[in-house]
Design the sequence.
């Protein structure tokens, strides 16, 4: 499904903008993911799924819509994945600076006992928390194996970070939206 107009999201209850990636056309006919929603010009919203984006880019409809014979960009998946990862890690860093980040399993447990909302990120290679009932609640979301330990370490300024907990509803929502989008690009390349 291609969404051509942002107003479509408010007009249709069955569509959620959080499940789409905005794609713009650059002056040199390259397609550019606009994950910060700030690029000017003609754009479309495509499902946040690498396989679907690749399929849609291969069709003539999009070329006709943009009025170009060919796109210089053919595989957006790796670029979208890289931008989403960077955006997520920057948000983690901001959450730390604002005091809304718990680093390590013990710090996360302490925050959860205080009934805080939490988004838990588990690095690749770390022990899963999905079967641990202590971490399962309606206020907690867990995402596993989507980021590397080194990435979490760089964004937190600590070494050997396997678990981080986002303790702010606003940061949680923003990061969770980006993580859900990133899911559509992890298994596909």
Sequence:
């Amino acid at each position: 499904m291609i969404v051509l107009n942002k107003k479509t999201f408010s007009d249709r209850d069955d569509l959620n903008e959080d499940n789409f990636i905005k794609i713009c056309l650059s002056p040199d006919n390259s397609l550019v993911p606009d994950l910060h929603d700030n690029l000017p010009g003609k754009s479309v919203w495509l499902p946040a799924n690498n396989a679907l984006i690749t399929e849609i880019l291969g069709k003539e409809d999009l070329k006709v819509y943009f009025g170009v014979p060919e796109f210089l960009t053919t595989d957006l998946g790796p670029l979208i994945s890289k931008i989403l990862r960077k955006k997520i890690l920057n948000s983690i860093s901001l959450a730390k600076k604002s005091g809304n980040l718990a680093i390590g399993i013990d710090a996360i447990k302490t925050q959860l006992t205080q009934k805080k909302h939490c988004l838990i990120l588990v690095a690749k290679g770390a022990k899963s928390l999905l079967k641990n009932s202590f971490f399962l609640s309606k206020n907690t979301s867990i995402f596993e194996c989507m980021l590397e330990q080194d990435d979490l370490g760089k964004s937190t300024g600590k070494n050997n970070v396997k678990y981080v907990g986002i303790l702010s509803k606003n940061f949680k929502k923003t990061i969770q939206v980006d993580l859900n989008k990133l899911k559509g690009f992890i298994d596909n390349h």
